Amino acid sequence: MRTGLVGAGLLLVGAVLALVTGTPVDDLLALGERIWPVLLFVVAITVVTELAAEAEVFRVVAEKLARLGRGRTVVLWAFIVVFATVSTAFLSLDTTAVLLTPVVVLLARHIGVNPIPFALTTVWLANTGSLFLPVSNLTNLLAEHKLDGVGAFGFAALSIVPALVAVAVPVVVLGIVYREELARSYEVDVGGPVADPVLFRWSAVVLVLLVPALVSGLEVWIPALVAAVVLSIVFVVRRREVLRFSLIPWQLVVFAAGLFLTVDAARGFGLTAVVEALAGSGSAPADLLRVAGVGAVGANLLNNLPAYLALEPVGTSPERLVALLIGVNAGPLVTPWASLATLLWHERLRGLGVEISWWRFAGLGLIVAPLTVGAATLAFALTR
């Protein structure tokens, strides 16, 4: 509820700023036309993944990962790294934070190991692993528009090198910090059968078909919406009580819309000139590091969405735009509000009775965020 209230407040602030600055109605309509497909995708993909979780798809995947680990925690953790990366790349960082967090925590408890390394793996890779595809992050969907609709494969071609580095650096840091916990062994326990095999099969098939559809060249909201409708129909037949209003992430939609409107209206107060002065110009390695650094700091001070929107005008070339995405996607690892995925992750942890102090989170983030953003940006700059 707090996220929704903050979003409503931002909508009010944005509306007031738009009135004060005299933002043309046509500009507001253009903003709405740009963001509605993004928000519709978020709603649809959230419904799909929530219903798939109800059908126990993710539980079964977690149990299979536990068996594949063959009693070695480090091997199981490696599978979780892959799972979190793939989930983020194809289903978005918020999906990973919401759905994978309880999976890995319950899995850790099931095998008797510390859940914190698994939980941190989830939230760090939800952020740093969101550079692969347009669907991985709302910022990418917005940037794809500015890149003249390069499509999933064109976007991946631009971002693949920094995306791989942005995944590798946090994994190395986690492996060093939690090497003792990850060196332990566990006993493999076979899980029970799913409650409704029909729901499970339908959900699994929809997810398998959705992944290639998201990179097919269609606007991503179309396959996501189709998948949500199909699964909703199946659940109407099999388990109607699951279909409730809370499946729709309305708070996230209100929050994101409020951020978009507020930042867009703030440009009338000279915001663009300020960020252009901070981010500089040029596409040399030092220039790209500057853009990425400003993006990372902005994301941790505000949130990655308004940071991207505020800094988007400095993305005057594909190289500078990718550097900005590196900063706002891989950088928000320090403050709890730096990305909505981090807030959602912490709420899930609290609901599961897992405590990690924000001081501990910020301390580790201050180490891994500069390393990740710096290494990913340099790798990108040197391979262009």
UniProtKB/TrEMBL annotation:
<feature type="transmembrane region" description="Helical">
    <location>
        <begin position="152"/>
        <end position="177"/>
    </location>
</feature>
<feature type="transmembrane region" description="Helical">
    <location>
        <begin position="289"/>
        <end position="309"/>
    </location>
</feature>
<dbReference type="GO" id="GO:0005886">
    <property type="term" value="C:plasma membrane"/>
</dbReference>
<keyword id="KW-0472">Membrane</keyword>
<feature type="transmembrane region" description="Helical">
    <location>
        <begin position="34"/>
        <end position="53"/>
    </location>
</feature>
<keyword id="KW-1133">Transmembrane helix</keyword>
<protein>
    <submittedName>
        <fullName>Arsenic transporter</fullName>
    </submittedName>
</protein>
<feature type="transmembrane region" description="Helical">
    <location>
        <begin position="321"/>
        <end position="346"/>
    </location>
</feature>
<feature type="domain" description="Citrate transporter-like">
    <location>
        <begin position="12"/>
        <end position="317"/>
    </location>
</feature>
<dbReference type="InterPro" id="IPR004680">
    <property type="entry name" value="Cit_transptr-like_dom"/>
</dbReference>
<dbReference type="InterPro" id="IPR000802">
    <property type="entry name" value="Arsenical_pump_ArsB"/>
</dbReference>
<dbReference type="Pfam" id="PF03600">
    <property type="entry name" value="CitMHS"/>
</dbReference>
<dbReference type="GO" id="GO:0015105">
    <property type="term" value="F:arsenite transmembrane transporter activity"/>
</dbReference>
<comment type="similarity">
    <text>Belongs to the ArsB family.</text>
</comment>
<keyword id="KW-1003">Cell membrane</keyword>
<feature type="transmembrane region" description="Helical">
    <location>
        <begin position="221"/>
        <end position="238"/>
    </location>
</feature>
<comment type="similarity">
    <text>Belongs to the CitM (TC 2.A.11) transporter family.</text>
</comment>
<keyword id="KW-0812">Transmembrane</keyword>
<keyword id="KW-0813">Transport</keyword>
<feature type="transmembrane region" description="Helical">
    <location>
        <begin position="74"/>
        <end position="93"/>
    </location>
</feature>
<feature type="transmembrane region" description="Helical">
    <location>
        <begin position="358"/>
        <end position="382"/>
    </location>
</feature>
<feature type="transmembrane region" description="Helical">
    <location>
        <begin position="250"/>
        <end position="269"/>
    </location>
</feature>
<keyword id="KW-0059">Arsenical resistance</keyword>
<feature type="transmembrane region" description="Helical">
    <location>
        <begin position="198"/>
        <end position="215"/>
    </location>
</feature>
<dbReference type="GO" id="GO:0046685">
    <property type="term" value="P:response to arsenic-containing substance"/>
</dbReference>
